[in-house]
Amino acid sequence: xxxxxxxxxxxxxxxxxxxxxxxxxxxxxxxxxxxxxxxxxxxxxxxxxxxxxxxxxxxxxxxxxxxxxxxxxxxxxxxxxxxxxxxxxxxxxxxxxxxxxxxxxxxxxxxxxxxxxxxxxxxxxxxxxxxxxxxxxxxxxxxxxxxxxxxxxxxxxxxxxxxxxxxxxxxxxxxxxxxxxxxxxxxxxxxxxxxxxxxxxxxxxxxxxxxxxxxxxxxxxxxxx
Length: 225
Fold this sequence. Notes:
mainly alpha, 7 helices, elongated
C-alpha cells in the first residue's frame, strides 16, 4: 500500500458518509412535509356533530383516510431521517440534541396513535357501524394525539441546534425555529382554534422540517447535535 492509499480510502469513506447523511436529511424533509399535509387534512374536519357521528365519518372519509396514509409514510421517513441525523457522533450527542431526539420520538409515537384511531374510524375492522360514542372517543384520541405530537415538535424545535456556516445564519435560523416552535405550542390546542390557524400550524410543521432538512443536506459534515 502506498503512502497515499490511506488518505484516499479515508476520503472515499468521507464521501460515502456525506452521501448517507444527505439521504437521511432528505428523508427528514420528506417525512416532515408528509406530516404537514396529513395535519392539514385533519384541520379541515369539523367537530363531530351530536347525533350525527356516522355521517361525520362518511363525509370525512377522504381526509381521514389520506391523513392516515400520509402519516404512516411520514413516521417512517421522519423517524429514519432523525435516527441518522441525530445519531451520536464522536464524543456523543449533546444535551440539546438528546432532548430534541426524545421530543421528536414522542411526536412520532403520537402520530402512530393517530394512525391507529384513524384506521379504526375508516376501515371496517368488525361488521356493523361504529356507535356514536365510539366515534366521539376515537375523534378525541386523534385530537389528543395531535396535541401531544405538536408539543413534542415544539420542544424539538426549541432544542435542536440547526447547523449553519456563519454566526448570522445561526442567529436567523434560531429566531425562525423559536417562532415556529411557538406556533406549535399555540397550534397544539386545535379544538380551540379556527380552521385557518390549524392550517397555519400544519404549514409550520412542514416549514420547520424543510428548514432543518435543507440545512443538514447543505452541510452534512457538520454535526447537528
